[in-house]
UniProtKB/TrEMBL annotation:
Keyword Membrane among record annotations: yes
Record key words, sorted: Cell outer membrane, Membrane
InterPro entries in alphabetical order: LptD, OstA-like_N
Domain of life: Bacteria
Identification of the protein by name: Organic solvent tolerance-like N-terminal domain-containing protein
Keyword check for Transferase: no
Domain Organic solvent tolerance-like N-terminal: start-end pairs: 358-444
Pfam families tied to this protein: LptD_N
Gene3D superfamilies (alphabetical): Lipopolysaccharide (LPS) transport protein A like domain
PANTHER family tied to this protein: LPS-ASSEMBLY PROTEIN, LPS-ASSEMBLY PROTEIN LPTD
Amino acid sequence: MKQIGFVCLFLSLVSLVYANNIDIPILIGSDDIFRISPADPNITKTNDKKKEKIPVMWGGNTLTQEERLINGFQMKVFILGGGAYITHKNVKLNAREIEVIGEDALIGNLKGQVVVEDKENGATLIASKGVYDKLLGTVTLENHPVLIHKKDGKTVRISCHSIVRYLEEARTVLSGKVVVTSLDFQVFGEDAVYFEKEDRIDLENEPFLFSENRFLQGKILSYYVKEGSITLDGNAAIYQVSYEKGNENIEESRKNSKEVKNKEPVEKEKIRIISTFSGDRLVHKNKASESFTSMKGNAFLHREDSEFKAEEIESTRNNKLIQAKKNVTYLDKKNAYRMQGGYLEYDKEKGYSFLSENPQIFFLDKKTLEEKGNLSSVFIERFDEKKEAVARGNVNIQTQTAKATGEFATYFEEEDKLVLEGNPTLVRDGTKVSAGRIILFPSEDKAVLTDGLKVLNDDKKN
């Protein structure tokens, strides 16, 4: 045993164990395709080249050397202290004390204040103890280690129970109570894999994400660090809390509830709204030019006052433009109607909706939401400010006791009134009539005909 004040050892990779070229005869015979002869000079050169790719340097302020029996072999053990370190290519492993097993540093036991620095990939790992394995090219960290990744102005902090870092691949496997924290949100999961070269963190086993007023959950979550983008696969769901101007329909229902009934009336203020958005797969891209959120497969948005369904719903321009495709259904509980079709586009800034591909409006009872009538046309437009829906082209209206047709119809939501124009006709009890305008009240099953009423025939077939 001897002490050395400061030691810096630079060692070659060819150990005595490997230099002996020990041949273990697993299978014997010329037909053994798995057995490689160490006498082949080409194979030896190739192996030497591979070994040369992993230069290792280690040192510290103090050094203690001893012999130990490890796995049945007598090995040299170097105990480094005071600024002890091991380098694996460009990655530096620091600790208060390091036990180096073998002259080639095949294993390194890191103890106290462990810091792994990978400056090339912008990663720093911190732990209280770890094990370095040269042949596997890994460092395993225990006791609640932390990974801090800084790159391109983004900082992500990941904590968990244990970490296995693959030094040459810049890949990190994180296990047990994984918490990913960035400036914008936190992700919680059981296990994760961080592919730093691909700029992606994958979390499985039902991870969930918290951000301001939002909660996301799915079976698998992938987070792209640089973009700040997210992919959720398998029963993806968003739960969001927002505060909006008073909705009369919601206020009325809440006043009638037992919790609010006995409370004194208060001035109108913003109402707390809880929204849920679910589907098979959620994709959120946070690009500098334009960000978007897309829910694919059984997309369903639920609020207290409305429901929105489609095979795919995509939101762009910071939720100001929404597009829905395939089996689109929008239910407005306040105004008691349901719209459906193959394609819906909504521009929030303009307060304008466009519904096409066999669009329909279903008129509902305000209390029970039972269907009282329906309308179909070539396309339907809706204007938020006026609270009107306009149907154009081959308009067909069905009430409880009548059918009406025309080229143009306007639905006034607050009055529950339909104005049908463009050679409108009405058929009721086998009698067909026409007029300049036909006004229908679907929930009351009432019709008013104006501007030139004319009975066309007694066509019972209609």
